[in-house]
Amino acid sequence: MKRKITKLIHEGKYAAEVSVELIEEPGPGGWSPYYSLEDVEKLEAVGDALKKGDLATAAKYGRVYELLPVAT
Fold it and tell me: Based on the number of CB atoms within 10 Å of its own CB, is 50 exposed (0-12), middle (13-18) or buried (19 or more)?
C-alpha cells in the first residue's frame, strides 16, 4: 500500500516541504514503512541544495522556507 505524505527537510536556516510516497507492506518481518529509491534520492537532493543555499534547485521539489529565530 502506498500513501502520499509531506516530508520536512531542515538544513541550516532553510526548510523544504517535499511530497513523497510512503510504502507500507502488510505482515510481519518486513522493513515497512519505507520510501522508494527515487524518493530517497529526491530528499537527498533537496537536503544538499539547502546546505549549499541553492534555493532554486530545492524549490523544484517542493515549497522552501527561510527560518528565523523568535525573540523571547
Answer: buried
Burial of 16 (0-12, 13-18, 19+ CB in 10 A): buried
Helix/strand/coil percent split, the chain, to 5: 30, 35, 35
Per-residue pLDDT, 23: 92
Q: What confidence tier does 56 reach under pLDDT thresholds 50, 70, 90? A: very high
Cβ(23)–Cβ(34) below 8 Å: yes
Contact of 14 with 67, CB cutoff 8 Å = yes
